[in-house]
Every structure is written in structure tokens, then in C-alpha cells.
Amino acid sequence: MGAELDGIDEARNLSAAAATIPTHLFQFHAEANEGTVFSDESYSATRVVDGACIFHNRSGFAGGEGCALHLAADHFDESPIDWKPSVCWQLPIKVDWEMREDNVEIATVRRWTRADWGEHGTKMAWCCTEGTDAYVGNSSVLDSLSDELTEIVGTEVFIQLRNRLG
Ligand code: SF4
Fold first, then answer.
1. Are residues 102 and 151 in the same domain?
2. How close is the Cα of 56 to the center of ligand 1, in Å?
3. Any ligand 1 atom below 6 A from CB of 69
4. Atom of ligand 1 nearest to the CA of 3
5. How far is it, in rounded angstroms, from Cα 65 to Cα 94?
6. Are the beta carbons of 63 and 71 closer than 8 angstroms?
7. Which domain holds residue 130?
8. Which of 64, 65, 54 is nearest to 18 (CA)?
């Protein structure tokens, strides 16, 4: 389906990032140069090429499999957060927003689950949070996703999480 983008600023950043990816890391760089990396002129999603996101290097590509934006971030020793659409780098973290009766908005940080995608959720090969390989690593999510969590909740809240859960 491509990745949904969070507004025109994110689209602008993505356009600049796409132009900066070294060509040996970007399987579909020719398609991007000849056309666009966006699905249409609303700039609300990435373009789909051959059934997947234009940035998705396919299995066997010499420059590396997976997201070309992520590979470029690694190549320049930068954070993928600064390169990828927010919907991509935030996965598998989800934020639920709820406005209480007293007008205080509550944000709950949790994992995405297959149920969050409705009937599509049963067919997604990449959904990882409910598989047997989830939560079995040597480091906690608090450590392995510390950059992402800090970006989402802010430094102050992240320190609180560390104090309470670390
Ligand atoms: S992670 Fe990269 S390849 Fe995957 S949808 Fe997002 S931008 Fe496209």
C-alpha cells in the first residue's frame, strides 16, 4: 500500500531524503528519478512499485534488502527516525489518544496488534508483536527502542519510564 505520510512537511523531508540515498542502496532509484516517490499529487503516501513501497529493496538486491531509507541512515551513521516516514519508524509502537470528560487528553503508548488493522491484520506477514519471536531478546524494548520512545513521548516522560521500569 505504500507508507502513509503525516502531512506536507513530512513529504518534503522524504523527498529530500530520497534524493540523498546513495544509488547503490536504492533499488528503484531510476523509477524515483523518472517519476516520483509519492503515490499521487496529494503527497499523502509513498509510491507503490511492483506491489510494494518504492523504497523497499527486494530480496536479493545487491545493495541490501529492506528499506532504502533505513539503509541510507545506517550508511551515513544517522538515525532512521530522521529519514523514514513516521508511520514506519514508529512501528511497532502505537499511541492511542483519548479525550477525557475533564478535557485532559490521555496518550497511551502500546504495541500495534493484528486486530488494529482489522481483517487485513490476519494476513500481514510482517506483523511481529504477536509472534513467538517477540519479547525474547536480551535487551528490553525500553533499551532497544529508546530513541523511538524518546521521540514519541519526550525526554521527560522517557526518564520516568526508565525510573519505573528500568
Ligand atoms: S519502512 Fe521504508 S520500505 Fe517500508 S513502507 Fe516505510 S518507507 Fe517504505
1. yes
2. 6
3. yes
4. 5
5. 25
6. yes
7. 91-165
8. 54
Domain shared by 147 and 108, yes or no? yes
Q: How far is the CA of 166 from the centre of ligand 1 (A)?
A: 30
Q: Which of 60, 85, 110 is the last residue of a domain?
A: 85
Say if residue 156 is in the same domain as residue 95: yes
Q: Using the 3D structure, point to which of 44, 69, 85 is the last residue of a domain.
A: 85
Rg (CA), the chain: 17
Whether 76 and 100 map to the same domain: the answer is no
Residue 64 · residue 53 · CB < 8 Å: no
**Ligand 1 atom at minimum distance from 14 CA:** 7
Instruction: Give distance in angstroms: CA of 3 to centre of ligand 1.
Output: 6
Domain count, the chain: 2
Q: Tell me how far the alpha carbon of residue 19 lies from the centroid of ligand 1, in angstroms.
A: 15
pTM: 0.86
Q: Which three cell numbers stand for residue 37?
A: 516517490
Q: Is the beta carbon of 73 within 6 A of some atom in ligand 1?
A: no
In a domain, 3, yes or no: no
Q: What is the pLDDT along the chain (166 residues), one digit of tens a residue?
A: 899 999 999 999 999 999 999 999 999 999 999 999 999 999 999 999 999 999 999 999 999 999 999 999 999 999 999 999 999 999 999 999 999 999 999 999 999 999 998 998 888 887 889 989 898 989 998 999 999 999 999 999 999 999 998 6
Contact 112, 127 (CB under 8 A): yes
